[in-house]
Amino acid sequence: MGGSGLPETRSICPYCGVGCGVLLRPDGQGGLDVRGDPDHPANFGRLCSKGSALGETVGLEHRLLAPQVDGRQVDWDTALRLVAERFSDTIARHGPDSVAFYVSGQLLTEDYYVANKLMKGFIGSANIDTNSRLCMASSVAGHKRAFGTDTVPGTYEDIDEADLVVLVGSNLAWCHPVLYQRLLAARKARGTRIVVIDPRRTASCDGADMHLALQPGSDVALFNALLARINGAGAVDQDFIAHTQGLEPALEAAWADDPSVTGLSDSEIAAFCDLWMATERVVTIYSQGVNQSTSGTDKVNAILNCHLATGRIGKPGRGPLSVTGQPNAMGGREVGGLANMLACHLDLENPDHRGAVRDFWNAPHVPHASGLKAVDLFRAVGDGRIKALWIIHTNPAVSMPEADAVRDAIAGCDFTVVSDITAQTDTARLADVILPASAWGEKDGTVTNTDRTISRQRRILPVPGQARPDWDILAEVGRRMGYLRAFDYDTPAGIFREYAALSGIAGQFGRDFDISGLGDLSDSAYDALEPQRWPVTSKRKGGRFFADGGFFHADGRGRIVPVTWCPPVARTEPRFPFRFNTGRIRDQWHTMTRTALSPRLSAHLAEPFLELHPADAARLKIGGADLVHVESPTGRAILRARITDAVQPGQVFAPMHWTGETAPSGRIDALIAAMTDPVSGQPESKASVVTVSRF
Ligand code: SF4
C-alpha cells in the first residue's frame, strides 16, 4: 500500500536496461505516483531522475488515439485490412525478402515474440531488425564468439562484491544511474576501486580512482596490452585456461599491437594493468563506447579475453558485464529480434535448430540465412529492394546514422506502417499508415534486464482511445494474412507460455536460454510472477555461467579470440579535422518522445550542444554559448558551444536526443556516417569526422 492507502502496482521502469522495479499508484489527476520497488533485485528501491519522473510523462497530450491512413482517421478494420493486403500483395509479387520490420527494445517480450514469429516463421524472411542493433549488437557477437551463445555470465550482485570495477566506454553515472548508485554503495562498504576508460571526462569520473582518456577506438590495444602483461607476469589461470582455446594466437596478436596508439603514457598503462592483475575480484562494465564502433566486436572480445585468461568470470565479484541502453534489449535478443538470430538463442544457420523451430511453430518455412541488419535494411529501403516496411516504437529518421538519407528512404518507400504512441515523430510523419499502440502503463507483459532478470510490466492505466497492445496488432495482421491458428492469441500470458515451451527445445539442444520451468504458468501465476533470473528449469534457477567452464561451443570450450587494433574507419582530414563523439545526457532518453514531457527533466540541459576543447575554441574564435555550425560528409547541424576540457583537443561531443520535432538544427545523427562493425553490423557512433565553425 502507498501513503494514500490505495494499492500500488508493481511494474518496471521503461527507460534503460537496468530494469528497475517501480511501485505505481494513480495520483487522481491523470498521472502516477512512482517510487522504487524495495523488493526488486535490480534497484532495491532506488530510482534515478528519469524513473522518478515517470508519473509526469503519462498524459494524453500528444497521444495517437485512432489509426490513420494518409493522415485521415480510420477504423481499425480499415487500417489492418490495408496493412495485411499490402504486405501480402508485396510478398506475392516480389517475394518475402521485399518486406521488413524495424522494431525496438521498447517492445515487451511477448510483442517481440509475435513480431519475430510472423516475419521468420510465416512471412519467411529474416528481415526483422531492431534498434538494439545500434545499442549492443557487438556485445552479442562478442559473446557468441567467446562463449558459443549470447550469454551474460554474471549478475548485478557482482558489482556489490567486486574490489575493482572498470567502466569502459560507459558513462554509468548518467546512462545507468542506479547501477552507478550500487557501485558507489559498494565503494563505501568495501572500498571498491573504480577505473574509467573513456576519451571524454564524464560524470562517472567524479568518483573514480583513475581515468584513462584513451584515443577513440583504441580499446583493443589497451586490453591487448593487459593480456600480454597478464601472460608476462605468469598470471594466466592454468586450470581455467584448460576450459578454453585460443590463448596462444590471441597473445601473438596482443604482442603485435602497439599500446602507444592509445595515447596513454607507459606509466598510465602500467598502473592500470598492475591494479587489474593485483585484484582478484574485477568486474568490467562496458557499454556504447565499446559497442558503437567499427571494431566493436573486437573490443568486446579484447575485454572478454582478459577475464577468460585469468578465470575472472562467473564467480562472485568477477566478470564482464555489458550494460544495455533499452529496457528490453535483452528480451529482444532472447526472442531472436535481431536479423541474424533465431528465437531462444537458437541459430538461424543451424538446420537442426531451424527445423525444430519450424516444427514447433508449425510454420511453412524458416529462412536459412540472416536478414538485413539495420544499416543495410534502410539502404534496401532506399534503393527499392524493400517495398513494404513496418516500423514499431522507434524513430529511425532521427536515430539512425545518416539520418537524412534514412528519412528520405522511408519517405520514398512504397508502403510504410508505423506503430507508436504518438504521430508526432519525424518517422511517423512519413508513414502511410499509423497505428495507435498502448503505452507503458497501459500494457502487460515481461521484460529482461541486463543481468537476465525477467520482470513483469503491469497495466495500471486505462487504454485511451482506440490504442491496442503491440502483440494484439501484430497477431491480428498475422491472422488477416491467413495464419489463423498460429496467431490465435488472447493474452500475453498465452504468448509467454508458448515462448517458454519453445525455450525448452533450446534447452534440449544444450543452449543457455531455457525458461521451460515457466511454461505452464496459469494466467494468475503469470500475473503474480516475481522477478527472476534465467535460466528457469526443473534443474536450475538463475545463477552465474562459466565459473567451471561449460561453454556453449560444440566442444564445450570457450574461445580466447585473437584481435588486433584497427583505427576507426572514418579518418580525419583537413576538411573534417575533428573526431565526433556522441552520447546521452542524464535526464533525456532516446529521441525524447517521453522524457521531454517532464518539465523538470527538460530543465537539466535544455538545448542541443557541442562540447569543444578551450584550445580549439580559441583557435576558431568560438566563445562559450556561441552557436556553432557542425558539418560532416553526410549532414549538418547547428548547436550551442560548451567549451570544456572534458573533451580532448581535436575531439568534440554532442548528445543524440534532439529531433526534427524538438530542435530541427540539432539532429546530430544526420552527421554520422553509416560505417559498421564487419562482424556485428553495429554502426559507429563515437568516431565520425566533422568540421566546426562559428555560426
Ligand atoms: Fe529507469 Fe534506468 Fe533510471 Fe532504473 S536506472 S530508474 S531503469 S532509467
Automatic annotation (TrEMBL):
Residues 6-62 form the 4Fe-4S Mo/W bis-MGD-type domain. Keywords: 4Fe-4S, Iron, Iron-sulfur, Metal-binding, Molybdenum, Nitrate assimilation, Oxidoreductase. Coiled coil: none annotated. One of its GO terms (biological process) is nitrate assimilation. One of its GO terms (cellular component) is oxidoreductase complex. Its cofactor is Mo-bis(molybdopterin guanine dinucleotide); [4Fe-4S] cluster. GO terms for molecular function: 4 iron, 4 sulfur cluster binding; metal ion binding; molybdopterin cofactor binding; oxidoreductase activity. Belongs to the prokaryotic molybdopterin-containing oxidoreductase family. NasA/NapA/NarB subfamily. This is Molybdopterin-dependent oxidoreductase. The lineage of its organism: Bacteria, Pseudomonadati, Pseudomonadota, Alphaproteobacteria, Rhodobacterales. The chain holds residues 1 to 695 of 876 of the full protein.
